[in-house]
Amino acid sequence: MTDPTTTTGLELAPIIVAIDGPAGSGKSSVSKEAARRLGFDFLDTGAAYRALAWHALELGADTSDLDAVVSASADFDYAISLDPDQHWVRVGEADITDAIRQPRVTDAVSGVARVPEVRATLTSLFRSLATGSAKPGVIVEGRDITTVVAPDAPVRILLTASPEVRAARRSAEVTTQDAATVAAALRRRDASDSTVVDFMTAAPGVVVVDSTTLDFEQTVNAILEVVRTETGARYGR
Ligand SMILES: Nc1ncnc2c1ncn2[C@@H]1O[C@H](COP(=O)(O)OP(=O)(O)O)[C@@H](O)[C@H]1O
Ligand SMILES: Nc1ccn([C@@H]2O[C@H](COP(=O)(O)OP(=O)(O)O)[C@@H](O)[C@H]2O)c(=O)n1
User: Fold this and answer.
1) CB of 14 closer than 6 angstroms to any ligand 1 atom
2) What is the pLDDT of residues 29-68, one digit of tens each?
3) Which of 77, 82, 216, 225 has an alpha carbon within 20 to 30 A of 27's alpha carbon?
4) How far apart are alpha carbons 17 and 37 in whole angstroms?
5) Does residue 167 form part of some domain?
């Protein structure tokens, strides 16, 4: 009998696990590890907003000017790896995997993310990247995945943590700025991002995982447990 999973053109669409949450809640790192363990792909949507902010800065654009951001997005040649073991982000020939984490990009990204044309374009891109995955599933993480990008995903999670814990996690990563500066930037960005999408409260049907008192391993396990429950034990632990 023909194996249904290898029939050309009739492959099943990957299952989408949508994860939203504020900065420093653990979305990227936890999603990447959970994807590895599930044998899934992983799509960091914030990387695209950061890459566009980087691109606009390279062009010398004012990222608080909507028209300038829209112009910069016109020749935005973006590519990202969905493989959790080989993460890279490119614009044109430039590998900007590390550059998009620079504080100057972090400070500019909310300005780019509030532009409706940019959100519409990137939302379509995220949908086609996720559905084009050859793996059985994709974990897609960001701010509006459970509500806008993939509201029909079978698994939808809001990953939260207290503001103090999130600021402490982020400042442990950023060595070029003091803890107070990192915490203030994170608060500012969350406040600005919240005016565009509500990622602090769970939409109906979205499961909350609060990682405030969980370590990294416990958080990954909590996500895998939700995946197991929501997929009727098809995936997850
Ligand atoms: N539950 C956790 N306990 C401790 N540290 C964590 C936990 N989850 C994530 N981290 C660490 O916190 C930092 C921020 O996580 P990250 O995945 O970048 O968050 P986000 O993508 O939500 O901004 C990373 O250094 C990560 O390794
Ligand atoms: N789905 C998404 C993902 C990110 N973003 C924007 O992109 C920025 C960077 O996202 P990120 O996930 O890399 O941020 P961190 O939480 O990792 O710091 C956010 O501050 C938002 O402005 C968004 O608007 N919608």
Assistant:
1) no
2) 999 999 999 999 999 999 999 999 999 999 999 999 999 9
3) 77
4) 13
5) yes
